Sequence to fold (214 residues):
Amino acid sequence: MLVEKRMKRDPVTLSPEDSFRHAMTLIRQKGIRHLPVVEGGRLVGIVTDRDIRQASPSPATSLEVHELHYLLEKIKIREIMTRKVYTVTPDTPIEEAARLMLQHKIGGLPVLQDGGLVGIITETDILAAFVDVMGIQQNQTRLELVLEDRPGAFLDVCRIIQGQGGDIVSMVTATAAHRGQEKKVLVFRLDGVPVDPLLVHLEAGGHTVLSAIS
Fold:
């Protein structure tokens, strides 16, 4: 899946000359957490709800209301925005976008195409994509097992599932510790399969089942 399938198009933006107060109003009214900053059609920064919180006056401030409003109007976005912005393109795989967010501890990535801003993808969009890819629905069986290190092990698992009338809705792989060793783990979501007979056949085939939830 590519970023273009999950990104929000035409995101709300700021200019460097917009006021801090304007940014705060947008974040509250629109219910958004990331505001790309654009100047002359070019992305020059980003402001997040965290930036707003950090730059906001303390609740214990002694300023009068009119003084506070004046201060918030005086502070410009160029003074608080993050200038080093990590970006992706519409053709970036969604897992690469997730890796960038995790690596740099950020919650959103502006999407650029031919140098122009065309969208934004956030951690919420990534999670929604993950839920869809996993095919998470009710009345399905979640099966987690160790992929044995031998030729044909994966195909054997699939044959056993098929032989028990199971339909593989989704499957992901991960690496996890098992009995002191790093092992490849398969996580299936299955439809139409009775759990107990399936487990009997898997274990008889030499496969280690970690969990089965229906």
